[in-house]
Design goal:
alpha+beta, single chain, 17 strands
Length: 267
């Protein structure tokens, strides 16, 4: 008989369907083989598919992994938020869910302000040069470039209009490899900060709303703006709002989620 697995597609950092970043969420009893997990993510064809199983760790409720259509990644914020929404929406008595991950430690999703807060490690820059091909691919000259562990880069530009107008060369970005490229500027209205995020080498030309990127943006902008909390907007075609707050070495990201599909995946 075919094996049927629970499946949900959830728009994270979204107030209504078709906003924010869609993630596939698939609870499992035990881990499937890695090649099967990767094939499922490829079939789902979303930026990330999140898989989780009950955890045997004292400090976590579930073990969590994330896959793009091409690779497994070491951190995905929006799919973690979506996974928390999936579980918390099924049990009104729960206030939080703790996920143990392979490389990002224990991540928590908790109820807050009518939505959720996602607690991630704040990402700090490291002294490492960015690939010059990225600037060529973006078609702009940044004020500054910050490098982060894993070969991820933050490009700072003067104004939000430059961020919104970018038309990157995704073919060239794919040649650079599996890197997260975040372009950011001061906000231009209701938001303090605007950004766009590209991960062409991981199979995602432009990511709609990216929790991992805001774990980089939160400490940078908290210091630059001189306040620990601010409102951010990721200016992709879908768009997404993220409430950012720096608490020590943690980036706390606030947002809401909308479940748009529920059913089963048949193997």
């Amino acid at each position: 008989m075919p094996n049927k697995l629970p499946f949900a597609q959830i728009d994270a950092f979204a107030a209504r369907p078709f906003e924010g970043n869609p993630a596939a969420v698939m609870p499992l009893e035990v881990w499937l083989a890695d090649d099967v997990l990767q094939a499922i993510a490829e079939e789902n064809n979303l930026a990330e598919t999140a898989f989780f199983i009950p955890s045997d760790a004292a400090d976590a409720d579930y073990d969590l992994r994330w896959f793009t259509p091409a690779i497994e990644v070491d951190l995905c914020g929006h799919a973690t938020l979506a996974s928390g929404h999936y579980l918390l929406s099924r049990d009104v008595d729960l206030d939080r869910i703790r996920f143990r991950t392979r490389l990002a430690g224990v991540l928590e999703v908790r109820r807050a302000n009518g939505g959720y807060e996602l607690d991630l490690p704040a990402r700090r820059p490291t002294p490492d040069a960015a690939d010059p091909r990225v600037e060529q691919a973006l078609g702009l000259t940044p004020e500054a470039v910050l490098s982060y562990p894993g070969g991820n880069w933050l490009y700072i530009v003067p104004d939000a209009a430059s961020v919104r107008a970018m038309k990157p060369n995704f073919g060239l970005l794919r040649e650079v490899g599996n890197h997260l490229v975040v372009v950011t500027a001061p906000g231009d209205g209701a938001f303090d900060v605007v950004s766009r995020v590209f991960a062409a080498g991981a199979g995602i030309d432009e990511d709609p709303v990216t929790g991992a990127a805001h774990a980089m943006l939160t400490p940078y902008w908290a210091e630059r703006l001189g306040k620990p909390a601010f409102q951010a907007f990721q200016a992709s075609a879908r768009g997404g709002r993220v409430a950012c707050r720096l608490e020590g070495e943690r980036a706390v990201l606030g947002g809401t989620c909308v479940t748009v599909i529920e059913g089963s995946f048949t193997l």
